[in-house]
UniProtKB/TrEMBL annotation:
Keywords: Cytoplasm, Disulfide bond, Electron transport, Redox-active center, Transport. NCBIfam families: GRX_bact. Pfam families: Glutaredoxin. Belongs to the glutaredoxin family. Residues 4-63 form the Glutaredoxin domain. GO terms for cellular component: cytoplasm. The gene is grxC. This is Glutaredoxin.
Length: 84
């Protein structure tokens, strides 16, 4: 099973969409709220180079944000990443 980390905040609609897609795949993930966890936003920026949420990592591979996750799904590549 893939190790998934999703950086988010509580009000982001794109975070909700990304979580809905992962939930529909039955994927378990660790969600880190960048507003609630001290230092989490800085950690996310250091890991991803991006400041917006969500930022999604699958097995330490930076997938990107919500649009990137859905693009992988549309290309048929998300299932393989989740299975690795």
């Amino acid at each position: 099973m893939a190790k998934i980390t999703l950086y988010s905040n509580s009000w982001c609609p794109f975070c909700r969409r990304a979580k809905m897609l992962l939930d529909s795949k039955g994927a378990a993930y660790t969600e880190i709220n960048v507003e609630a966890v001290s230092g989490a936003r800085q950690e996310m920026i250091k890991r991803s180079g991006r400041t917006s949420v969500p930022q999604i990592f699958i097995n330490e591979l930076h997938v990107g944000g919500c649009d990137d996750l859905f693009a992988l799904e549309q290309k048929g590549k998300l299932e393989k990443l989740l299975a690795d």
